[in-house]
Amino acid sequence: MKFLLVEDNMELAEAILQRLKFDGHVIDHAAKMEDALAFSEVNEYDLILLDIMLPDGDGRDFLQKHRAARNDTPVIVLTARSQVSDRISMLD
After folding, report:
1. Contact between residue 50 and residue 63 where contact means Cβ atoms under 8 Å apart
2. DSSP-assigned letters across all residues of 34-50
3. 72-77-81 Cα angle (round to 5)
4. 65 in helix, strand or coil?
5. Strand, coil or helix: what is 56?
6. Can you give the pLDDT of all 92 residues of the chain as single tens digits?
7. Cα-based angle 83, 85, 87 (whole degrees, multiple of 5)
């Protein structure tokens, strides 16, 4: 499978990258929303792992732009936020 990991915490990103590559997956890594958008415009992914708090924007903005481009790639959201309102806004 081919994944896009959008995560700015390099320690966490390296752990995820290592594990997925070990399992034989192809994975691109973007530490900023700008890079994630560029990756998603030119590649097709089976799954996107998306952090919400990015240095140049909010992961929700990435997801809105991604969906507006009619891209229905499944997305798993990675976040330290625990408020119910955050979870609901991601589902919208």
Report:
1. yes
2. HHHHHHHHH---SEEEE
3. 145
4. helix
5. coil
6. 999 999 999 999 999 999 999 999 999 999 999 999 999 999 999 999 999 889 998 888 898 888 888 888 999 988 765 555 555 555 55
7. 75
Tell me the residue length of the chain: 92
User: What does the H/E/C string look like for 4-28?
Assistant: EEECCCHHHHHHHHHHHHHCCCEEE
Sign of the alpha-carbon dihedral angle for 11, 27, 62, 35? positive
CB-based burial label for 51 (10 Å; 0-12, 13-18, 19+): buried
On whether the CB atoms of residues 48 and 1 are closer than 8 A, the answer is no
Sign, CA dihedral 57-87-63-76, equals: positive
- What's the whole-model pTM score? 0.85
